[in-house]
Amino acid sequence: MSQHSEAGPPTTPYCYRHTDRETYIVCQRCGRPICPDCMRQASVGYHCPECVSEAARSIRQPRTVAGGLAPGQVGAVSYVLIAINVVAFIGQLATGGNNGTLTEWGAMLTGTWRGHDGSILHGVDDGGWWRIVTSGFLHFGFLHILLNMYALYLFGPMLERMLGNLRFLAMYATCLVSGSLFVYLFADPGTITAGASGAIFGLLGCTLVLFLQHGYDVRVLLGLLAINGVITVVFGGISWQAHLGGFVAGVITGAVLGFAPKKARTYLQIAGLAVLWIALVAGFVLRTSQLTA
Length: 293
Hints:
mainly alpha; 2 domains; 56% helix
């Protein structure tokens, strides 16, 4: 004796994310029904958003030679830094130029002085710690900012490609602060100093180390460094202290980022930069104690 049952009416499929939308398209990976808003074009058919996200996580992200994530837009950090410098320079022009309020407020300065308007200017040793950073974004005249920003435009994107955005930014900040430290240590306390030259020379120093590591031709770079070195020494009014401080930090940073072994590379790079920053902070503290003794 045989038995049979009648099948019920077919079930209408609905999108698994939008349960009020009828659909007859399914994800080619998981088989879930998906509506047009959830369909993601794949090499074969369509995938749902969850499968697309899972596939993206499984793809190995490209890395730079220093272990950083390959920048999505090469040069983005350099162009932002250039924009900040240009905006700061416009602010200088709007507030009196080289002897104006913004320049006197943000340039490297040691001791306590009176500004052009009679206000008290506090140097780094007198609590004006912001000058360590702000001085690296101020410039004395069009030629000064033009040369520095042109060098950043030429070498910045290339070094971003080799380091990655975060490592490049860490290198730039380290060299900027190191240039300010050398000014603080060796310049005449009565000298007002400003400019991105410390960071730029650090950029060149870092590039030199990475080029040597990977066997690139460094003759042009060495020639550029030699010319700038001669100009720094021969012509007056140029802060050799900032140039030297930035370059030294650039070489050290390039070695830390470029020669760290791949095993635990990120941790070793962080540790190396941390040691360098501890040395920079110690230099500022010791110099301040010496000047205020």
